[in-house]
Predict the structure.
Amino acid sequence: MSNDTDRDVIVRARNVSKRHGTVEAIADMTLHVRSGEVVALLGPSGCGKSTFLASIAGLVRIDRGSIDLGDRPVSGPGLHVAPQDRRVGLVFQDHALFPHKTVADNVGFGLHAMGRADRRSRVGQMLELVQLTDKGHRYPHELSGGESQRVALARALAPAPDVLLLDEPFASLDPTLRSEVREEVRSLLRSVGTAAVMVSHDISDALALGDRLAILRAGRIVQTDAPDAIHRRPVDEHVARIFGPVTALAVTGTEGAPVTVLGPVAPASVLRWATGPVALARPHTVDVSNHRCRDGSGAAGTVRDRQFVGHGFRLVIALDDGVEVIADVASDAPHDIGGRVVVRNRAALPPAAG
């Protein structure tokens, strides 16, 4: 893994803090983004995502800390480089296209320093990149939501920024179009290789684009890593729940033979949280049957709720000791509300002896 002194670091934010009146919007946030990497800032509304993004863009003057873009300091004690001088591209959730300008003029808006011929050539390249070469003469109101998003991306990328900043870029799209445009943006970012930082509160958006996730809560980054690494080893239950329903099971037993209410677990699956050692049970890893397992593992409980979720049913099971477990079962599984079942956490079981 590269360290923070590497030349391929495009964004280097150190201990960045910002207050809005008496409210600490972000506190001691440190994040490094490397060349070609997409980092998704993920968290609930009000956690500081947009403030941090605006700090990188120069739209917000930070109170403490420093921000470098490439090898150039842009924010710090006594220093604040204006947004237009930072070589960043911005894409907002409402696209912010100029309604009185054509698509081509919108894309070329930030290219005033170029000569007319070079500017026309660059606009043509960008329209080709986003597959809108036949729409350059149109106006924003004549475009679909997905087309407007692509124009906004083309405009942001046209000046060849060092980093692209995206603030909830898919929030204004309906669910079907959102998925399609997400894939288009993912492909586009991979093709141009521009580093990007994206703000989102939607885990699907973050997973679709992010090489790494930075999980925010109450103005602080609580965990940064690849999506699969955070999914496997979240630092606390709040982070674990970002990926969907989960049951945190208290772990007891010896270091070499840990157990939960659902039975033994592999030592490698135990997480050391501030609340104590736990193992996670997610709906797709929970086995539900009408009888106890041969090895004696599992816990008895009662089906409290049953909801169809497309691929089958999601059960809420109240174990006899009071723990509540969520499990996904096949659509033909014979488990009705009020039925007695036995549950075990398949993913956390230690490997069988050879």
Remarks:
- The chain has a mean pLDDT of 90.
